[in-house]
Specification:
The protein is an all-alpha fold. About 70% of the residues lie in helices and about 0% in strands. Helix 2 packs across helix 6 and helix 10 runs antiparallel to helix 12. The longest helix has 29 residues. It is globular.
Length: about 280
Amino acid sequence: MDDQGTLQQVQQGLPTRVEALRARVDRRLAELAPAPGTAPDRLVEAVRYSLLAPGKRFRPMLVLLAAEAFGANEGAALDAACAFEMIHAASLVLDDLPAMDDAGLRRGLPTIHRAFDEATAILAGVGLLNQAYAVIAADKALPGELRAEIVARAAQAVGFMGLVAGQARDLLDRDQLRDMAAIDRLNHEKTGVLIIAAAQVGALIGGADAAAVEQVGEFARRVGLAFQIRDDIIDAEGSVEAAGKDVGKDAAMTTAVSRLGLAGARAAMEEHLSAAEAALASA
């Protein structure tokens, strides 16, 4: 944006816009989730329990706002945005399993393997992940070539360069001391890669050129690192009620907080956010 006054107006109106978009995402997720009778009732109930639980919808917001910023028609990115929420929800279901983090609470509710059972949780997570790809592939609002690219970016973010790699690294090296470079790499894989993919997909839907997509990716990379540091801070000093999930589970792990202290972690988070703002201004 060229005009500072216009930028300030956009920033002032953003919270209202985000709430409207979040409500729209929630409505569309309810439509895209499997309906009763389409699969075994217990599985459908578990999927809807996980996917439709109250959440920030951060990743779909990135898709929608990036697409809008680059001129996409309203609604053009909605199904792609919902697909990214499905991927995120699937990752949470699998991350919470007893073989992984063995979490008991997520988004203020019992985790899906506690509310249902472990086998249903695994099937729900796998089903949600595949439903995300199906939603993108079926999105007639987007040209076929773009749909293929979105599926490829989403799959790469989930796979051996993204969420799966990060979770494996976390499990295998959990008791190892890490320096900040190793912590950033882990956070990038577990959190940042999917955030980058969401933001860049939104930019692509909006018609951004390659240079702008790259800058949007750098913005999202920095936001992802800041996001995970904030999560570490919440785990260290937050309450279960405020976080809506188990806290204190990182106490035996090396995190930004254990490495830098609370003040240092907050400073690192702010540094990432400042760099994100600079990258966005260049997009």
